[in-house]
Design brief:
single chain, alpha/beta, ten-stranded parallel β-sheet, two-stranded antiparallel sheet, 12 strands, 47% helix, globular
Length: 328
Amino acid sequence: MSAVRFNLVDPAQDDPATPRGRTRERYAAALEMAEYADGAGLTSAIVEEHHGSPDGWLPAPLTLAGLLLGRTRRLTVLACAVLAPLHDPLRLAEQLAVLDLAGGGRLTTVAGIGYRPEEYEAAGVPWAERGRRQDEVLETLLAAWTGEPFTFRGRTVRVTPRPYSPPSRMLFAGGTSRPAARRAARLGLPLFTAAHLPALEAYYTERCAEYGTEGMCVMPPGEAAMLHVTEDPERAWARLGGHFLYEARRYASWQTAATQSSLESAAGSVEELRREGIYRMVTPDECVELARSTGQATLHPLCGGMPVEEAWSSLELFADKVLPRLGE
């Protein structure tokens, strides 16, 4: 899999002196990059959901997903993850069905439960109800996509249109805990984990057998990393390392002892971040080797507010000097 990740993080957005047009230009660049990636033969674009971050961390992944689908023809768009308990279940069912139909089955949504109480508070959703609401959302989506009437919160409702894809192809249950794995197995949904957790995959497979459902687990490789392709890694770290460190520290500040993520960093400096290997500046040759060993390559253009021209340089270098060699 070759992917581009977009979360549109930009710490400059929190500065009143920053021109408002800067954010618009970065969104426009993301759409242009997705279109370029589609034509070059990359397989996926990844969007995500967070709320209230001063750097503008993407709060509306399905809106951006729809725009990406409209600008591309082959690229799969992965919404990873949508914070399902914060959404109205019926509206979410309708929105995903329409996106699935309009995109020809190219949208995959990971329904996550989230890990930031402040996002629940802002949405007016009790944090203590997150598990129950996750159950309700997933059960409602499956019932809604049959196209038949069903009971929702004590009333009979019907959701139309039906999606193009079967639920098992367009919807994953996200999580890194045993309750998340049990939920996915009980509902017959594939499981998507945010970390490399073979033991959880085994537990999920056992629960699928117990419930009599068919399962599939997708997880990042043990060497998961966000990549920037460059002919000069030393220059790239000197020029762009602060952008990657900003995003790594912001993300780490949201994590708790209960969360697990392959992208969680403990770095406090650019040098520490470089040694960790979660974010990597790689030459085309190094990128080819890494993609072959892990089975995937995820570029992170626009990471942490980096200059747009640097993002384009990485993407174009990947398309010209890496992607053609991955089929060898």
